[in-house]
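debug: dumping io for the single-chain case to check the tokenizer round-trip. Nothing else runs in this session.
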Amino acid sequence: MVEDSASRRRRRTASIAQAYRDSHEVMSICLSLGVMVGGGYWLDLRFSLLPLFTITGVILGFVAAGFSLRRLLERLDKRSRQEQSSSSASNDQGAT
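debug: decoded output
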């Protein structure tokens, strides 16, 4: 009984830690987009070329955010497949 409670606590802690990692990745994606757009706007104000650097910052921000989002989604998909295969394997062992 003690081992069962300890293993549940470890799994819960691991899932909370993973949620923090995932939310950190999403915040990094948003921050990179904001920094690129803000940097482009600042350069436009500094050099008086208003739409040029802002548009460039938007494009670069979306490209960077797209790559990061793709990497995050691939990792989440891989984790989901692993959880499904491990749960189906435990169900198969329980049935036999």
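debug: round-trip ok. The longest helix spans residues 2-47.
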